[in-house]
Automatic annotation (TrEMBL):
Gene name of the record: uxuA
Keywords for this protein: Iron, Lyase, Manganese
Pathways per UniProt: Carbohydrate metabolism; pentose and glucuronate interconversion
Family to which the UniProt record says this protein belongs: Belongs to the mannonate dehydratase family.
EC number: 4.2.1.8
Protein source organism: Enterococcus devriesei
Protein name (record): Mannonate dehydratase
Listed GO MF terms: ferrous iron binding; manganese ion binding; mannonate dehydratase activity
Reactions that this protein is recorded to catalyse: D-mannonate = 2-dehydro-3-deoxy-D-gluconate + H2O
Protein function: Catalyzes the dehydration of D-mannonate.
Length: 355
């Protein structure tokens, strides 16, 4: 297991690589190039510069999150083939600079949805929350709500230029149900996985967030059955999962421990986002501190399922609260994620020594 930390780049962050390097046992960065428009090839010189910057700070760059999938691929338009060719070239370019895992998703329109990016907890910290009653019926209203709460940071999956056309996007997806989206996903995977096998890069799809339909949009990476379909439709170790404990557990019907154990054992989880959530009522929740007692998930049980079933990939503490007066991109402060990383590393050390 190798602990990593998501970082958006020097021009997109308040957090410095030197600060991340000081987190005990922190090994690598989960990197990205946020300014590359979806569907375009990631240039080699930009990848090279990012890698050199990170390695100069004493960290590694083995995981990229996210190389987003163009909507034309998800919708199944004739133009998808060119976007798939671009995606394959990006995979080749990333492989040339030592990238081993690409985290991505196949969610229509929105990469993730929360009702509140500044949900206040009793200790005075703030976090992300999902309360169904607070989700507006009009998608344009949720876009405005997110933009107004973003602290002027661009949020992954909520690119303003793309979502400015949200009405057109919803119209384009109107005939795409779960069956059609799954068909288009299979088409994409069958096209790119041979390239991944050729260059040694594992694709790792992120579960839907939340893992059930909102705004009438289809969801196809939402439970154990969907993950099983994914693994079988292109049966290759290069076709994998970013198992996000917070996302998959947002539906209480999902047994996150059994899912983690099964797909680790099947060697299909090269990357994991490990965070805790606390259910408020029904499916409403907020993102809690990592320690088990503060949330609804047993983090020891999650890591034990990973450890006992041979997980040897990359892990990151995922989201964190804003604590100690910190401000920045919601969910992506330095301090609470650092605490989460150290906590998870402590559990892992105990599991290894007990074994």
């Amino acid at each position: 297991m190798e602990m990593t930390f998501r970082w958006y780049g020097a021009n997109e962050e308040k957090i410095k690589l030197e600060e991340i390097r000081q987190i005990p046992a922190m090994k690598g960065i989960v990197g990205t190039l946020m300014d590359i428009p979806v569907g375009e090839v990631w240039p080699k010189e930009r990848i090279k510069a990012l890698k050199e910057e990170i390695e100069a700070a004493g960290l590694t760059l083995k995981v990229i999150e996210s190389v987003n999938v163009h909507d034309d691929i998800k919708i199944g338009l004739p133009s998808r083939d060119q976007y798939i060719e671009n995606y394959k070239q990006t995979i080749r370019n990333l492989a040339e600079f030592g990238i081993e895992v690409i985290c991505y998703n196949f969610m229509p329109v929105f990469d993730w949805v929360k009702s509140d990016l500044d949900y206040r907890l009793e200790d005075g910290s703030s976090t992300l929350a999902y309360v169904a009653a607070d989700i507006p019926e009009d998608p344009e209203e949720i876009i405005k709500k997110v933009e107004n709460s973003s602290n002027e940071f661009e949020l992954p999956g909520w690119e303003p230029e793309r979502l400015s056309q949200v009405k057109a996007l919803f119209e384009a997806y109107k005939d795409v149900d779960e069956a059609k989206l799954r068909e288009n996903f299979a088409y994409f995977l069958k096209a790119i996985i041979p390239t991944c096998e050729e260059v040694g890069v594992k694709m790792a799809v992120h579960p839907d967030d939340p893992p059930y339909s909102i705004f009438g949009l289809p969801r196809i990476v939402k439970n154990r059955e969907d993950l099983d379909w994914l693994c079988n439709v292109v049966d290759s170790p290069y076709n994998g999962i970013t198992l996000c404990t917070g996302s998959i557990a947002e539906d209480p019907a999902n047994d996150v421990y059994a899912i983690m154990a099964e797909f680790c054992k099947r060697d299909r989880i090269p990357f994991a986002h490990v965070r805790n959530i606390k259910f408020i009522q029904d499916k409403d929740f907020y993102e809690a501190p990592h320690k088990s007692e503060y949330g609804s998930l047993d983090m020891f049980k999650i890591l034990k399922a990973m450890h006992d079933n041979g997980f040897d990939g990359y892990i990151r503490p995922d989201h964190g609260r804003m604590i100690w007066g910190e401000t920045g991109r919601p969910g992506y402060g330095l301090y609470d994620r650092a605490l989460g990383a150290v906590y998870l590393n402590g559990i892992w050390e105990a599991l290894e020594k007990a074994n």
